[in-house]
Structures are given as structure tokens and as C-alpha cells.
Amino acid sequence: MAKALLGYVGGPDPRVLAEMRRLQQRVQDLESELVRIQAENDALSAAAARHGESLLDSIDVSKAEPALT
């Protein structure tokens, strides 16, 4: 009876197993995307450092337009 109360009557639910596999694949996909984005960010940071100035330094404040008027 305890097994019935816990949901083990017919073995593992195939829908739960399929959802778990789908979620595990999604986690792997997101981890891969994170590694790719981190590598791209590192490359962009290195390129910016080679040029000697940051993006903020290149903005001409005297020509800036007001955000809201």
C-alpha cells in the first residue's frame, strides 16, 4: 500500500522521465551557450583592451542628447 501512495504502482511515469530528459538537455544546452558567450565576451574584452580606450571614453558628452524632454 505504501508503494501505491507514493506512486510506484506502475513503475516510473514515462512522462516524468521524458520531462526530466528534456530538462537535462536544456541545462546542457544552456551551459554550452554560457561557455560560448563567455568566450565571445573574453575575445571582445581583449580586442577593446588592444584599442586602448573603453567604449565610455569614446562617447562625446558635448554632443549627447537629452533622454527625455
Number of helices: 2
What structural class is derived from the secondary structure elements?
mainly alpha
From the spread of the alpha carbons, the general shape counts as elongated
Radius of gyration: 26 Å
Distance between the termini: 71 Å
Output mean pLDDT.
Answer: 79
Task: Spell the H/E element sequence.
Answer: HH
Q: Percent range for helical residues?
A: 55-70%
Largest sheet: none
Low-confidence segments: none
Bin the strand percentage: under 5%
Say how many strands there are.
0
What would you note in describing this structure?
- The structure is a single chain.
- This protein has 69 residues and is mainly α.
- Helix content is 62%, strand content 0%.
- It has 2 helices and no strands.
- It has helices spanning 2-6, 14-51.
- The longest helix is centred in the middle third of the chain and has 38 residues, at 14-51.
- The protein starts with a helix and ends in an 18-residue tail after the last helix.
- The model has no long low-confidence stretch (mean pLDDT 79).
